[in-house]
Write a structure and sequence with these properties.
Strand order of the largest sheet: 1-2
Mean pLDDT: 87
Distance between the termini: 37 Å
Structural class: mainly alpha
Shape: globular
Number of helices: 7
Helix content: 40-55%
Number of strands: 2
Strand content: under 5%
Length: 171
């Protein structure tokens, strides 16, 4: 994976430089990411098996080693996949904080059956726990769209009309 940096040239114009995300980058953010994840998981009342599933199913001993190091201020170096999962959880948490005035409302939305087309009656937390990285990002994208003004309930079953060649216009 690459990250972009935007240094300015001599004239003050930002330049885009891509560099590979390395071990030092992951080590720098891993401890803080785990501590934040733990705080969110506590607020969401997640069980230990749910937390381990969200982080990508590391062995239980590895999970406890990571958490111990993070708690002590040391920084384990997490795999990129785990950091991406934590990033998704941070985005979900942020959206819930924006969309709901009270934590209890956010928890009700997160753990209750949901009528949104993507959820098919399942609680969003089940997508987060059981859906791997894709499930986490699905919930994040759903909440991001909702924050952007899209209710997310979708059209009723059968209300979609397929796109035909006549619908496509080239100018």
């Amino acid at each position: 994976m690459q990250v972009a940096e935007f240094p300015q040239d001599a004239g003050g114009t930002p330049q885009v430089q891509l560099r590979t995300l390395g071990r030092a980058d992951r080590a720098r953010v891993s401890g803080a990411g785990l501590r934040t994840f733990r705080n969110i998981a506590d607020r969401w009342r997640l069980t230990e098996p749910q937390r381990i599933a969200i982080l990508g199913e590391p062995p239980r001993s590895t999970y406890h080693s990571w958490m111990k190091k993070a708690q002590e201020g040391d920084s384990p170096t997490l795999p990129l996949d785990t950091l991406l999962r934590i990033s998704g959880i941070l985005g979900i948490h942020k959206s819930l904080e924006i969309l709901f005035a009270e934590q209890a409302q956010a928890l009700t939305w997160l753990s209750g059956a949901h009528a949104g087309t993507v959820f098919q009656g399942a609680p969003p937390v089940s997508f987060i726990v059981d859906g791997a990285l894709d499930g986490i990002l699905t919930v994040r994208r759903y909440l991001d769209a909702w924050r952007g003004g899209h209710a997310g309930l979708g059209a009723t079953e059968g209300a979609f009309e397929p796109v035909t060649e006549g619908d496509i216009v080239f100018v």
